[in-house]
Structures are given as C-alpha cells and as structure tokens.
Design brief:
Helix content is 22%, strand content 41%. With 358 residues, it is an alpha+beta fold. Among the domains are: 38-54 and 258-358, no CATH class; 57-76 and 140-155 and 187-244, no CATH class. Strands 1, 2, 3, 4 and 7 form a five-stranded antiparallel β-sheet that branches. The chain has a five-stranded antiparallel β-sheet with strand order 9-8-10-11-12, with no helix packed on it. The longest helix has 24 residues, at 188-211.
C-alpha cells in the first residue's frame, strides 16, 4: 500500500511540473499533439446604410408653373437616391493570422484561467466568427398615371370661326360672314391656365369658409370636412404643376476589416450614387462614404509591433486599443463613436497556472 501511495505522489508531482507550452502556429505547420488552438481577437465593422429613393414624375404643366402660379417646378422626371441613415456595428472575431497552440495538459486551474480569459474576449477559438446577414430591398416602379384623376376640366373646347362666302345679290357679288363652331383640343397652356384659376378659386373659397364670409354655415365636423376636401383638391391640382413623388427605401450592409499595417486608417465603407443608390466600395460610379479610425487624442492609429514570442507557462492574449470611429461623406460627419479595436492593441502574456481571486 505504501508503494502505491508513493507512486501516486510521484505522478502528481510530475504532472504539476509539466510545462504548459504555448507556440504560434505558422501557415503549414502541424499542431502539436494534445494542444488546443486559439486565436487572438480581431475587430471588424458592419456598416448598415439606408438610402431613400425618390421616384419623381414631373407635372404636365411644369413649364407654366412660374407664369401662372409664381413657383418654380422640376420639369424632368427621374429617380434620385439620397443617403438617409447610417448605422455602425462592431464585431469581435478570430484573427486568422494569429493562431496559437496551447497545451494545458491536465491542469484544472490553467484550464479555468484560459476559459475565463476567453469569456472576457482576450482570446478566442480559432473558428469563432460573427454571423453576418445582409438585406437589400429594391424600389417599385414609378406610376406614370399619377395625374389622370387630377384633371377636373374637359380637354375639349368650342372655337368660333368666321368664314366668308360669296353670294350674288341685286347689286352684284358680295362676301357674307358665316359663323361656324368647331370642337377642338385645348392647348397645354390653356389647360394650365384653367387649372391655375381653379387653384386660386379653391384658395379663395377656403378663406371665405374659414372667415365665415359665405352663405353656407359650417361648424364642427362639417367645417373640418370641407377644409380637408378643399386641401385635397388643391394638392391634386398643384401636382399638375409641381409633379408627384413616391418614396422607397434601399438598405444594404457593408463589412470593413481594419488592417493594422495600414499607414492611414481610412477605409471606403461604401459609395452612394444619385442615380444608382448604394454601391460597394470598388464601384467608382458613386461618391465614397469613408470610415476613419483615430486614437482618442485625435492622432491616426499607431502601428504596434506585435511580439508573438511565446514563453513557457504563459498564454498570449490581446488587449484592444480604444479608437474613435467616424463615418463621413467627405464633407459632413454622419456618425462618430468610441469602439475598441483589438488588432490595434498590444499582445501581452499571462501566467496561465496562477490562482485568480474572485
């Protein structure tokens, strides 16, 4: 019995002094037997952009709006995109360029410490990554019949024409006028003039109702209904001059992974085009929207020397650098926030077999 007890004590002593090896795994190298592989954390950004699409249909009387209403109106139809919102999310994922093999052996305390460091985000499993979903919704077609119901007057009018015919009388040949009435199509300008007259008539009637200068008496819900109907008619008639717009949304997601070695931490997140909407960074058809990372003192992010030399009994981990993330369109700052960026931080080592106080 004493011999068995001494043997167990010897094995326990041997296990307790076994080195906890940690080494960097370069591409193509084999993982040591019995070791686990972890990676240092890296920060990536997901930019969620939303653009508003205006599908504009010019009014048929647009070129007469200044003459009859005293307002200017767009005369060309088209689709126009404008950036309406930008959202920035940061994710922590495994840095594929920094894989480290660690042999914890049967050391329960070292295993517990390693899991604690993983829960705090200082190290990660080598296959850990952030789930990424992108969603794009394309706009609907523009309604080219938007003004059909806004025309209140007839498109036809009566034109009186005086014709002459020659007749024989006692005094000789004479030209006699003959009145002839024809139904012809109104000119576009004539229709614009009539519509403008109807608009001013509606405005005058609304003022009479509001001030009580009318034969009819309106009160309560009747007054509200009358004013709303006049407003609706005025809006319909005005659309014949100023046009109609329908709006839709385009939403896209773009990923940006900062590179520590980059001399300037400025990245084109995406591009926006007035005619094509949201575009990826490599499509030069649009204007760039950039993500810039600055240190909190306003200086560009420093490039750190990452020493990945592993020591026995120690685990390598990475602490992030706190950066200012700014998204701008070149002129205006659209978003600014503080974010931790792991790949800009320092790589440190920690004795894995140490008692951590709770």
């Amino acid at each position: 019995m004493d011999k068995v007890y001494k043997t167990l004590l010897t094995l326990t002593a041997i296990l307790s002094v076994l080195p906890l090896n940690s080494q960097v795994i370069n591409p193509g190298e084999a993982v040591p037997k019995g070791a686990i592989v972890y990676s240092l954390p890296s920060t990536s950004f997901r930019v969620i952009a939303e653009a508003t699409l205006e599908s504009f249909t010019a009014g048929p009387f647009a070129r007469f709006s200044q003459k009859y209403l005293g307002i200017s109106a767009r005369e060309s139809s088209g689709e126009f995109y404008t950036l309406s919102s930008v959202e920035l999310n940061s994710f922590v994922e495994a840095d594929r360029s920094a894989n480290i093999a660690l042999n914890l052996g049967n050391n329960a305390r070292a295993t517990a410490n390693f899991l604690e460091m993983m829960s705090q985000g200082l190290v990660m499993w080598s296959d850990a990554g952030a789930s990424k979903n992108s969603y794009v919704r394309f706009p609907g077609a523009r309604d080219i019949t938007a003004f059909n119901t806004a025309l209140a007057a007839s498109n036809l009018t009566n034109v009186n024409t005086t014709l002459y015919k020659t007749i024989r009388t006692n005094s000789g040949m004479e030209r006699v006028p003959v009145q002839q009435t024809q139904v012809v199509e109104k000119s576009l300008e004539k229709r614009a003039e009539e519509t403008a007259t109807a608009i001013f008539r509606l405005r005058a009637k609304r003022l009479e109702i509001i001030t009580g200068e009318t034969d009819a008496t309106f009160s309560g819900e009747a007054l509200k209904a009358a004013i709303n109907e006049i407003n609706r008619l005025e809006e319909e008639y005005l659309s014949l001059f100023i046009g109609k717009s329908t709006y839709d949304k385009q939403r896209m997601t773009f990923d940006v992974v900062p590179v520590r070695e980059s001399p300037r931490q400025i990245y084109i997140a995406f591009r926006i085009s007035e005619n094509q909407g949201l575009l990826p960074a490599d499509n030069v058809s649009g204007s760039p929207v950039v993500l810039e990372l600055l240190k909190e003192n306003g200086q560009p992010a420093a490039s750190f020397n990452m020493d990945l030399t592993a020591e026995r009994g120690r685990v390598l981990y990475r602490v992030p650098e706190i950066m200012i993330a700014k998204i701008s369109d070149g002129q205006n700052t659209l978003l600014q926030t503080r974010v931790p960026v792991y790949q800009f931080g320092k790589v440190l080592s920690f004795p894995i077999d140490i008692a951590l106080g709770k």
